[in-house]
Amino acid sequence: MTTLLAGKVAAITGAVTGIGRAIALEYLRQGAAVAVNHYPDSKSDDQFKRLREEAGAGAKLIAVPGDIAKPETGSDFVSKTVSEFGRLDIFVSNAGVCQFAEFLSPELLKSTVSINLEGAFFAVQAAARQMKKQSPQGGSIIGVSSISALVGGAGQTHYTPTKAGILSLMQSCACALGPYNIRCNALLPGTIRTQLNDEDLADPKKKEYMEGRIPLRRLGQPHDLAGPAVFLASNLSSYVSGAQLLVDGGAFVNFQ
What we know:
By secondary structure, the chain is an alpha/beta fold. The chain has helices at residues 18-29, 42-55, 71-85, 109-133, 160-177, 204-212, 226-233; strands spanning 9-12, 33-38, 61-65, 90-93, 139-144, 182-189, 244-247.
């Protein structure tokens, strides 16, 4: 069977749950060796064990625990990935948090920015340094942004600026890193059912309302992001850089 990422090495932050986990599993199915970052605690260790079990025997998969909010975590993640697999071809900046809160409520901005934006910046920077060393081979960097980068949300005033920042970061990195054959693109998920929004969507009325706004009439699932992430990582998108790919079931264009 032909695989789209055969022989490639990928590193994914925040990849033992949700979207990151789905991308990791699909990258493995497509022939890549995969390193995943996760928060260093026993719960995440257990989640990685379950990921490894699902990946199956023989999967080229390692975990590099670390708090992505710390600038050194990205460098350590990239270094250990290269030490294990020899190089880095694909980097997915996925780790993030989202807590709904009123704009005038107690402060959430600093912690959200430190994880979602600053953590992504330093991790992407570390990946880019490694890929520059590999030039002209280069690589693909994917930032997981959000439909929230393009629309407002009353309960997301501390979150939406960070996701707009990821989109902008990928656009600017596409300009800065293009000469080294490093492509940079953003994935913009719509409403995807993950652990981040389970509590919010537990309300049947809220869930029905959200589904009604989506032309495909369903909430997204983490695996819905896996195919687009493979596309942006593979040679199928060899002339795609600085792009934003909405994966939202049509929600953004539905103004009804």
